[in-house]
Design goal:
1 helix; 12% strand; two-stranded antiparallel ribbon; alpha+beta
Length: 32
Amino acid sequence: MHLEGEAKLIRIFIGESDKAGVIPLYEKIVLE
């Protein structure tokens, strides 16, 4: 993957109890 332009590193801290609807948020991020 090649990206052009300015880039930023974003770190997101989530826990096991954070959910996107009924799916754990960490699982939703990995599946996307």
